[in-house]
Amino acid sequence: MTKIMMVILSVWVALAPTLTFAQDSTQDLPGKLRPAYAPRRLLVKYRSGLRDVEIEDRVASHGLSHLRGFSGSLRHWRLASVPNYRRLEDVLSGLRRDPAIEFAEFDYVYSASGIPPDDPNFSSQWPLKNTGQSGGVAGTDINVTQAWQVTIGSPDVVVGVIDTGVDYRHPDLATNMWTNPGEIPGNGLDDDGDGYIDDVYGWNAAAGNGIPLDDNRHGTHVAGTIGAIGDNQLGVAGINWDIRVMALKFLDKDGSGYVSDAVDCISYAVAMRERGVNVRALNASWGGPGHSQALKQAITDAGTAGLLFIAAAGNNGDGSGSAGTDDDVSPLYPASYELPNLIAVAAVDRKGNLAGFSNYGARTVALGAPGVAVMSTIPGGEYASFSGTSMAAPHVTGVIALMAAAAPSATMSQLGDAILDGATPLTSLQGKTRTGGFLSAVGSLAALQMPFITSPDIRAVVSPAVATLVPAQPVPIKLTLASIGHFAGAVQLAAEVKPVTNAITVSSPTMNTYLGESGEVAVDFTAQVSAEGTSGDYLLNLSGVSGGVQRTWTVPLTVQSTSGLFSVNVSPGTVAMSRGAISLFSVNIQRASNHTLPISFQLMSMNDSRAVTLLGALPNPTRSNIAFMFVMTNPSAAVGTVPVRVRATDTRGATADSNEIRVQIR
Questions:
Q1: In terms of C-beta density within 10 A (0-12 exposed, 13-18 middle, 19 or more buried), how is residue 175 classed?
Q2: Which of 47, 109, 129, 591 is most buried (CB neighbours < 10 A)?
């Protein structure tokens, strides 16, 4: 098959300022929205005058048991438990026909209006909550804070990000990444027999291996919009606070890739779904003008398997007022394939305008979503604001995952139709997209028109989300469990390290705890590695089991053994450079006596991550103690000083950051 180069959609990078977040005022949910409720409980009011013994007889006749009563004016109410084998709606209907019962209703789930998370950069995330910050129009957002009253996502839902890879060690993504339970990292074997070796986090089709790590930033940014960990006092909140993101890499460090590799990524996701992984959607924030029948067939196959495919409409405008092109007239693929499982997305700014760079199409582009100055995750534990239809598409993918969490039985067609039917009409999109509408999370949930039953479940936040272990330095890890859907019960905890090694131990004062309905509980673990530990990457799986509820939270571990430590020092410490200029830096590597592994380098900008670029290093990778880096400033970079560090990584995953260097752009 001819390989057709697929070029990543261009993005504009602009850091969004930090602003003060104004909390929601109390608002009611739309009337069409089906509220969540406890799956095995009902509230029942018996007619006055009934004695307690008569009430108990009525309870028994309906096959129920009372959990508790109430006092005062609610003394005739009871909270009743419904057996697992009874359908809740049928029991409710029977109760309402009983003349001894005045009223019966679901035990609804209520939450604080808007549920603003405690992530410090949430105030900069105008797509999720637009308060008018930075000149935007208040209310021009995807209404997700109201949707969070129904669900914040589910670890049972998996979405694939087909892109430049994902930094699956990012602290705001790590525990929300999908990991293959049957695969042992780093042993060079196909442990689960799926045809892929070491596919722990997904698949890197470009390199033909199981290391889909982002070397560009684009894919990590997309993943953060969909599923950055929410309410963890760190960075940003994703549309889904709890989800599993599958990393699928086919675009290289320059943002380019081949159709054949894109097809391979899609095929991997389909294969995983056929093996029982609950993959519901694939995000494709990329495109090109070449029509590929192979790509079209792969997307069709994904639809047959039940996967929605979300594509960016394209960025053919120059962003200065010149509009993008019409995908109906000048097709861009995959956005312009007219397939039932494909949803193409245009970009909208914080004022509700179609972005100047965004493509459109009254027939081929379905709707608009936020795509200008979108704050999200980038590699190295950092954050940045990007613009592009690449940023708009993952908002749609995120809402699809949110719906799949709220209504697990919803079909692909039901989810796709709800996205379109729930869109909010927007003047700038009339005649420019098929719906003429702007993405609405709460509108999509309402359009789904399915009962949302919140099953008892456990959510956890792990801190730190990633950890580095060095001999003689124990690392504390806190697992904070929270109740969802009125879960209450004893939780049995366990810790497992993969690959198995006696050198790493994980312990806790208690491996059993009790979690109440409306509370949370923190359990402290300690992880440490002995001097015999081998440098490399490991997975720590912390699990909690209570009855039918079983959850696992994965913490990536990097072991740096005493024999493998190294440090790097970059000089000169300060250099003045013109825009578009290239400068040479030397890197002095201090190694332990027996460390001879190759080391590669990555620039870690402290404020403007596009201002300077690492062109290359010589020798690269290096086994010596000295290397030279060629660094170029962006021709359009702002004048000023950019602080930069260099991250050095050896082939077993050990890392070290350099001293801070300062690039003075003039």
A1: buried
A2: 129
User: What is the per-residue DSSP string for 113-182?
Assistant: TT-----TTGGG-TTT--SSGGG--TT-S--HHHHTTT-SEEEEEEEEEEES---TT-TTTGGGB---TT
Q: Is 10 exposed, middle or buried (0-12, 13-18, 19+ CB in 10 A)?
A: middle
Interacting residues of 317 by C-beta distance below 8 A, sequence separation 6+: 323, 324, 325, 355, 356, 357, 358, 359
List phi, psi (to 5°) of 318: -90, 0
What local confidence, expressed as pLDDT, does residue 553 receive?
97
Q: Are 160 and 246 in contact (CB under 8 A)?
A: yes
AA identity, residue 335 = A
> What DSSP string describes 70-85?
--GGGTTEEEEE--TT
Q: Which residues contact 73 (CB under 8 A, 6 or more apart)?
A: none
Catalytic positions are: 163, 218, 390
Question: The tokens 């990555």 sit on which residue?
Answer: 602
Instruction: Give the pTM.
Output: 0.74
Model confidence at 533: pLDDT above 90: no
Tokens of 541: 């799986």
3-class secondary structure per residue, 318-335: CCCCCCCCECCCCCCECC
Provide the residue type at 78 as one letter.
Answer: R
Dist CA 609 CA 603 (whole Å):
9
Q: Residue-wise over 229-245: b if at least 16 C-beta within 10 A, else e?
A: bbbbebbbbbbbbbbbb
User: What angle in degrees, to the nearest 10, is found between the helix axes of 441-448 and 412-421?
Assistant: 130
pLDDT value at residue 564: 55
At 329, the amino acid letter reads V
Distance CA 476, CA 491 (A): 20
pLDDT tens digit sequence for 132-142: 999 999 999 99
Nearest in space to 124 (alpha carbons), one of 254, 21, 2: 21
How many CA atoms are closer than 13 Å to the CA of 91, on its beta-carbon side? 25
